[in-house]
Amino acid sequence: MSRLIVISNRVSAGGGAQGGLAVALSAALRANGGIWFGWSGEVTEQFTGHINFQRTDGVATATVDLEEQDVEEYYNGYANRTLWPLFHYRIDLAEYERSFAGGYERANARFAETVLPLIEPDDVVWVQDYHMIPLGRELRNRGIANRIGFFLHIPWPPRRLLATLPEAAALVETMFAYDVIGFHTQEWLDSFVDFVKAEMGATVDANGVAHCNGRTARLVACPIGIDTRAFEEMARSNIARRTYEKVRASLVGRSLIVGVDRLDYSKGLEERFLGYERFLEENPEERNGVVLLQIAPPSRGAVESYQRIRSTLEGLAGRINGAHAALDWVPIRYVNQGYARDELAGVYRAAKIGLVTPLRDGMNLVAKEYVAAQDPEDPGVLILSRFAGAAEQMPDALLVNPYSAEELSDALQRALIMPLSERKARWKAMIEDVRKRDVMWWLETFRDCLETPLDGAADSAPIKVVQIV
Questions:
Q1: Measured between alpha carbons, how far is 381 from 421 in angstroms, rounded to an integer?
Q2: How is residue 418 annotated by DSSP?
Q3: Range scoring the smallest mean pLDDT among 32-36, 302-306, 334-338, 393-397
Q4: Which of the two residues, 227 and 13, has the higher pLDDT score?
Q5: Are 367 and 261 a contacting pair, CB within 8 Å?
Q6: Residue 356: which domain range?
Q7: Residues 254-302: pLDDT tens digits?
C-alpha cells in the first residue's frame, strides 16, 4: 500500500484537546504510514524552508515556520477573513484585499517547494481544506505526477455568493490540478458543480468525472466520521467516568444541556443563547431544572470579528443569568477554554441534551461524538442544526433552524419530555450510521477514489458527479 502524505495548515498529531479533523487524520496516518506536513504555527523572521521532523503517538509530522507577513496575509487574511466568511455565507464579513490574495499564493508556493523533497514517486498526496486550495497546482508546476486529492472540510457556497470573490474562477480552476475533489455532502458538491458549469463551461456525465478547460477530476461526496469505537471506549474510561460524576453532582438533579464549539460566528452561539433565553421565558416551570453548559474555546483572536463574537456572548450570558438566576442556580455556565476529549466524553454522557446548532457547518463532529458517548440504556437527545453537514446523515436528531429562537425553544422542551423509548430509537438509528461511516470508512472511501484511474476518460468526456453512500 502506498504511503500517505497529508498536507494541511494545521498539524496536530497527539495531545488531548485535538479537534475532530486532527483526530481523523492521525488515525488515517497510523493505519497507512506516511507524513503529515504543514505550518508549525510558529513565526520566523525569514522563511528558510527548514523542516522540523517529529513523531507523536505513531504519527510522523513535518512542519515549517512562516514569516509574520505570511501569517497575516495568508492565514489571518485570505484564509480567515476572506474564504472562511464567504464559504459560510457571511459575505458581510468577507474582506477582499489584493495583499491577502497575494500572501495566500505566496504561502502555498512555499509549502509546495518545502514539501517537494518529501514526496516519493509512489506516494498518494492528500491536501486538506480551504487554506491550501491552489497547492495541487503548485505541486504539478514542480513536476509532481503522483495521485493528488483535495478534501474541503467547510461548506461550498452557492454560485451567486462565490461570484463575489474577485478571483473566484481562477481559484476554482486551480482545483482541477487534483485527481479527486471531495466534499462532505451532496449539497456542497452540487454547489461546486453549479459554479463550474455556469461560470467555467463544465459538463456532467455518468462516470463521476469532471472536465474543465482540458483537466479532469473525480468529484465525490464523502462525509468524514470519527473513530467511533475508540470514542465509545473513551466514554467508559476512568477519566470520563470521574468527569461524568463531577458534572452530575454539580447539577444537583437538574438536566444538563451541553454545547461544545470553537468560538466562531458560524457556530450560531448568539442565536443559541437567544433560543435558550426564549425557552426560559416560555417555560418558567423549567427555570430551576436545567443548566446550559457552553464550552467555547477561543480561536483566531487576531481577527476582529472573533473579538466581537466573544464580547457579544459574554454580554448575553451575563444578561440571561442576571435575569433568570436564583440564589442556588445559574442558567448558563459559559466556559472559554478547551478540554481533553476523554473529559468531553464524560460531559457528553452526563448531558440529557446535546445542542449542536451552527448557522452553517461543513460537518460538525461534535454531533457524532455526542451520540457515541451516550449510555445505550438512557441516551440523551441530539438537537442539530439542519444547516450542519451532519444533518444529512442524522435525520433522527431533532433538526432545527438555528435562526429561529422559537424552534430552538420548542426543541428543548420536546427533548426534555421525550419518552425513553423514543430516545432509544432515535439514538440507535444514529449510532448505527456513526459506527458504519467512521473515520476509517471516510479514509478508505476517499482513498479508493484517489487510487482508481479515471478509466482512460478522454479529455473531451463530459463531467459526472456522484455521491458515495
A1: 12
A2: -
A3: 302-306
A4: 227
A5: no
A6: 228-436
A7: 999 999 999 999 999 999 999 999 999 999 999 899 999 999 998 766 6
| Residues contacting residue 195 through CB under 8 Å, at least 6 positions apart | 159, 162, 168, 172
CB atoms within 10 A of CB 327: 4
C-alpha cell recorded at residue 4: 500517505
Q: Classify residue 469 as exposed, middle or buried by CB count within 10 Å of its CB (0-12, 13-18, 19+).
A: exposed
Indicate whether 301 and 268 sit together in one domain: yes
Point out the residues that are catalytic: 153, 361
Containing 71, the helix (H) or strand (E) segment is none
What nine digits make up the cell of 377? 440504556
- Give the separation between CA 21 and CA 264, rounded to whole angstroms: 17
Q: Are residue 232 and residue 217 in the same domain, yes or no?
A: no
CATH code of 184's domain: 3.40.50.2000
Q: Over 90: is that where the pLDDT of 464 sits? A: no
Closest of 324, 240, 314, 256 to residue 285, by C-alpha: 324
Contact between residue 62 and residue 53 where contact means Cβ atoms under 8 Å apart: yes
H helical segments located in 121-268: 135-141, 159-162, 168-174, 186-200, 228-234, 238-251
Under 8 Å between Cβ of 370 and 415: no
pLDDT tens-place string over residues 169-225: 999 999 999 999 999 999 999 999 999 999 999 987 777 788 998 999 999 999 999
Separation CA 451–CA 448 (nearest Å): 5
Grid cell locating 297: 474555546
pTM of the complete model:
0.92
Segment 151-169 mean pLDDT: 96
| Residues 192 and 314 both lie in one domain | no
State how beta strands 51-56 and 59-67 pair: antiparallel
Looking at the structure of the chain, the number of domains it has is: 2
In angstroms, rounded to a whole number, what is the distance separating the alpha carbons of residues 81 and 150?
22
Task: Return d(Cα 51, Cα 64) in angstroms, integer.
Answer: 5
